[in-house]
Every structure is written in C-alpha cells, then in structure tokens.
Write a structure and sequence with these properties.
27% of the residues lie in helices and 16% in strands. It is of the alpha/beta class and 315 residues long. It has a single domain, classed as Rossmann fold (3-Layer(aba) Sandwich). It has a seven-stranded mixed sheet, with helices on both faces.
Length: 315
C-alpha cells in the first residue's frame, strides 16, 4: 500500500503515535510518471464497479437502482481512514513540536469539542483564547481567557508561549494581519505558529464563500456536526499566498506550507456525490500541478530567534 505524497513531507524522525501511523497509511494514488492531464490507473473502473450492471434497471420501468451505502464506500475506497483524520494528523504535527517544558496557546480553543486538541498534561502549560465565553468550559485547558473583539488583542504578555496553534480557526478571522502580529508578540523568540485551515481554492470554501451561514449550518447538520459550532467565515488567510504575505507583514519566517486532500469529507452524502468526491481526490493527489485545489491547508511560521546580543527582531 502506497502512502500519500502530500503527507510524506509531514513525517519527522520522532516516534509517531499508533493512530497517526495508521493515518499515514492512507490509500492515495502515486504521482504520474509523466504527462498531464493524468487519470489515475483504474479510477474509472473503481467508480463504475459500484454500480452493478444487473441493478441498473430504470425505476421508470419498474426496476430499482441499488447503490452502495456511504459506509460501504468508506470501507472500499478508504479502509485506513478514520473520522477526524485531519485532526489526528494535526495533533501529531503539534506533538512533534512540543515537549514537557513547553508553554502553548490554543488560538480559537472554543468549548473543547475537538478531543485531538487535548495536550493537557503533556506540556507545562496549556492556555486557550476564544471570543466565545464558552472557552471557559473547555476541559483541555489549564487556563482560558476571552479574546476581545474587534481589537483581537491576545490577553497575555509578550514572549509568553513556545507554540501557538489554531485548528480550523483562521477561516473565521476577519483581520489576519492583527492576528499574525498578536501571535508574534506573545511567542517567545524562535517560537512557532502552526495552523490547519481549509484551502480557499478547494471546492468546499469556494461554495462557502458564495453562500450564507445558514446554508453552512444546514450542511453541517446533514453531516452530523453541531450547529452551534458553525460560525461565519472570511477566508482571508486560506491560501499559500495569503500565508506568505501575512508572515512577511508580521516579520515572521515561513517554515512550511502544505495542502492535503483526504477522503471526500463534504460529499459523503450518497454514492453519487461520493463518487464525484472520489474522482476529485484521486485527480488532485495524482499530480503536484493540482495541489492548489487540495482541501486542507497546513502551515508553520516562526518568530525570529534572539540575536547574539539577546535582542529580538523589531516588532
């Protein structure tokens, strides 16, 4: 079984958890040897095989159209995937950048509904900020504070944290320049800001940018997600170009930008929509030329380290 080329770059030398080891064995196609456009080998056969010929009788003629269930397609096409696979991947990404002495900040921590973002007890101190007072209910934090808006000033002193992370938060940020500057301020010299957020050139954000929040809530309700955790989106820090520009303005160093496509998370409604998502996933993972259309954007930027004289770069 081949691993995903888009995930290879995220693997570091530290031991990985069993869960993330399974996540890294996801079934993705290899890159094409040459040529473009490229249709992955066996792709059309994979899709057509889910519609058995003997069952393609038209309902208008009194027959039935039997299609596989979503769970059956999960097992067939993505047997190694787990629910919240992207959060498992992001968790491991964070774990490889922290230690027992680390002080970390969960930016946009919310009420704590993502269990993969629980690092309590693994580091010295876990803080969390969020505009919603429900952040005080978050069981994964040693300390929670409300992030005031519209100033978005993080309520902590300068040079307080080794790592700041944001899980599916940056798409909701109205002024990412302020966010980057504030994150830089509270990071220690050499500290890092890492985030996972939707890539705005993927079909899901493209649709989300053209539809109201009420539509987003309806879709998430259909996906089995909590409606009260669906917030308005802005998508102002959701492309590789956005990240580079914001990092430059905030005087931070870009260390990593990756775009990753997994199973068709937003099309797992029925066999027909699933097949469309499967076709999309196989194509965008088949060649780096289509990387810009992959769903998950993951980036790491760093605050400049202290100079030999012990001074940090100018804010």
């Amino acid at each position: 079984m081949r691993s995903c080329p888009a995930l290879d770059c995220l693997r570091l030398e530290r031991p990985r958890s069993r869960e993330i080891a399974q996540c890294e064995q996801l079934r993705f196609p290899s890159r094409p040897r040459a040529g473009f456009p490229y249709i992955p080998s066996g792709l059309i056969a994979d899709i057509t095989e889910i519609f058995p010929r003997r069952e393609r009788t038209s309902p208008a003629l009194g027959g039935t159209l039997l299609l596989p269930t979503v769970s059956a397609l999960d097992h067939r096409w993505y047997p190694e995937f787990k629910k919240n696979w992207d959060n498992l991947l992001f968790r491991d990404f964070i774990l490889q950048r922290i230690d027992r002495e680390a002080r970390i900040l969960d930016y946009g921590a919310g009420r704590g509904h993502v269990e993969q973002m629980n690092f309590k007890g693994l580091v010295e101190f876990v803080a969390g900020v969020d505009p919603d007072p429900a952040v005080h209910e978050n069981p994964y934090l040693d300390e929670a504070r409300v992030l005031p808006l519209p100033s978005a000033k993080i309520p902590y002193e300068d040079n307080s944290f080794d790592v700041v992370f944001a899980d599916n938060v940056m798409e909701h940020v109205a002024d990412p320049i302020v966010t980057f500057q504030e994150v830089r301020r509270v990071l220690k010299p050499g500290g890092i800001f890492i985030a996972k957020t939707p890539n705005k050139w993927h079909y899901m954000p493209l649709i989300a940018r053209c539809t109201p929040t009420s539509f987003h809530k309806a879709v998430n309700r259909r996906r089995g997600r909590e409606v009260h955790d669906t917030f308005p989106t802005c998508y102002r820090c959701n492309s590789a170009g956005d990240v580079r520009t914001l990092a430059k303005v905030a005087n931070m160093e870009v260390r990593l930008i990756r775009r990753i496509e997994g199973w068709p998370e937003y099309l797992r409604f029925n066999a027909m929509t699933y097949a469309c998502g499967y076709l999309f996933e196989r194509c965008v993972n088949a060649t780096s030329a289509l990387e810009m259309f992959r769903c998950v954007l993951l980036f790491e930027v760093a605050k400049p380290a202290a100079s030999p004289q012990g001074l940090t770069a100018a804010s």
